[in-house]
Amino acid sequence: MIEVKNLSKIYGTFHAVDNLSFKIDQNCVFGFLGPNGAGKSTTMNMITGCLAPTNGEITINGFDMSLKPEEAKKNIGYLPEIPPVYEDLTPYEYLSFVGNAKKIPKSELKKSINDVMEKTNITVMKNRLIKNLSKGYRQRVGIAQAILGNPPVIILDEPTVGLDPEQIIEIRNLIKDLGKDHIVILSSHILSEISAVCSSIMIISHGKLVALDTAENLIGNEETEKTVELEVKGQRETVLEILKNTEGITFSSCLEQKENTYIFKFMPQNDPREQLFYNLSNAQCPVISMFIKKSSLEEIFLEIIQESENTKTGGES
Amino acid sequence: MLSVYKKELRLYFVTATGYVFLAFMLLSAGLYTSLVNFVYYSAAFEYVVKDMCFVLLITIPLLTMRVFSDEKKQKTDKLLCLLPIDVKSIVLGKFLALCTITLIPAVVMCAYPVILSSYGVVNFKTAFSCILAFYILECTLCAIGMFTSSLTENQIISAILCFGILLLCYMIPTIAENISSASDFTFKAFTACAAAVCVIIFIASKKWLITLIAALIMEVPLLVIYFKYNELLVGKFASFSQWFAIFGKIDSFTNGVFDITAIVYFITVALLFICFTIQSENRRRWR
């Protein structure tokens, strides 16, 4: 369980993180999104105890980060943007150091190290110096250190940077697996990765939380205009006329790329699809298919960020 | 603390740092023994130890420059922040690793008086107490080097800073002999020191009020003494500067006196710089 209450970080007069509050008590993979300078890294550094907040409380598994930092840190694993690895040690020596520092009992240490090396596929490299490893392997050593000791909360900042496509898939699957019995917070700029891996998404802008919901809710059920793609047989003029005259349709057009295909838009509170079906049926224009086009995460992200920008500008003026 | 200690010690020996330090120290000890003992037909090993202090001006900055600077450069300082270890344990772990590596040449040097005893009369008590004092001095200088390393992420700057401080401490007896003992000069010198301390306080706290209070605490008594009890200031700056003559404290050991006050002095300075390092690291973490 991770709980953040009224978290703020102020540098002089600049509010890097502004009164941020959220609570995650379910095991799943959280995507942490925000434009550059939104306060993502500052928030992650404060959650992991690397940076002191100006105000607010951080509780990891019931341990307050400012009152019981050692206990709180035992429950958290973090991979920063640049993997914090000692280049002159081998992955095994490095993980032994991290395991000892995390106070993993000696009897379990060897097994834990071997397990995380298996999971991250670095067993073959365990006796090579880290400075001789490729960027991808270093990244994996960084991930191994984060998950060593099986902490209930894992925070990964850009974990797939520098990996080849095959490794990216492996690491994404690993993150998905970890999400089954851990709280994983994943920060990434690759939105396709977030939508592929994360079941919930958190978006921050100007240090404030602007969205925290499941990916499905954010992408599918938002109270915005819906776009429908419609395939229907019949004369184009007739179909367009029906679309124009059906109540609730705010915009309609035919698609030039596909024959007999049209798009129209409506607001969720005034759904015209049933009426449209009867109207087309009465005009002897059979409906082949009709489905709501889902917005991509990119569109949702940009929309939410734009909204928060507008609110900020409005508030300031 | 133990995990940091083991990791540090391992890093000294997987990189060349540890071996270079040991080689340089042992080479210097060998050269000085040849020059002092064999060339001059003397079995007094304590003079070798006294001369070896000069070598520490070079070896200590080289040994300590990477302690914290390298962590910052490699971004592994973040890992130390993340792990459930407090700053105190990290600093002590690193300091103990430095003490361990400096112990090796000191232990090897213990064989030299035994070898010399085959050629002449060796005062073992003086020789071994001198080596012990030399080892504690090394540890104290390591604490200073560790502190300078915590101030910057550039190893070269850290080494130069440490070398500067050690050189000043080394030169102080010579400087103290040649400075004026006049009360006017003493007043000006103390005022300059107070100004330097105020600058450091301001850089650390960024608060004018604290700096002003510190300046008043230091300067007002000084002004009172200067104007009312002028004669009290005569020669005081020279004796004050002797406080910082770390290397000079080993002289009494060379003269056959086991100086407990010097040992206490070394330990106090080491503890002071360990505390400074803890503060410096804490400040960086919570900034």
Overview of the structural elements:
The complex is a heterodimer of chains A (317) and B (287). Chain A has 317 residues and is an alpha/beta fold. Chain A folds into two domains: 2-220, P-loop containing nucleotide triphosphate hydrolases (Rossmann fold); 226-293, Alpha-Beta Plaits. Helix content of chain A is 38%, strand content 27%. Chain A has helices at 40-47, 69-74, 91-101, 106-119, 135-147, 165-181, 191-197, 215-220, 236-245, 273-282, 297-316; strands at 2-11, 14-24, 29-33, 55-60, 63-64, 76-79, 153-157, 183-187, 200-205, 208-214, 226-232, 249-254, 261-266, 287-293. Chain A has a six-stranded mixed beta sheet, sandwiched between helices. In chain A, a hairpin with a 2-residue loop joins strand 4 and strand 5 (63-64). In chain A, helix 3 packs across helix 4 (106-119) and helix 4 (106-119) packs across helix 5 (135-147). By secondary structure, chain B is mainly α. Chain B has two domains: 2-176 and 243-285, no CATH class; 183-234, no CATH class. Helices cover 79% and strands 0% of the residues of chain B. Chain B has helices at residues 2-14, 16-39, 46-64, 69-73, 77-82, 87-109, 111-116, 124-151, 155-178, 183-205, 208-228, 236-241, 251-254, 260-285. The longest helix of chain B has 28 residues, at 124-151. In chain B, 37% of the residues are buried. The mean pLDDT of chain B is 87. The A-B interface holds A 48-52, 69-71, 73-74, 76, 78, 80, 82, 84-89, 93, 97-98, 100-103, 129, 145 and B 2-4, 6-7, 10-11, 14-15, 74-79, 81-86, 285-286.
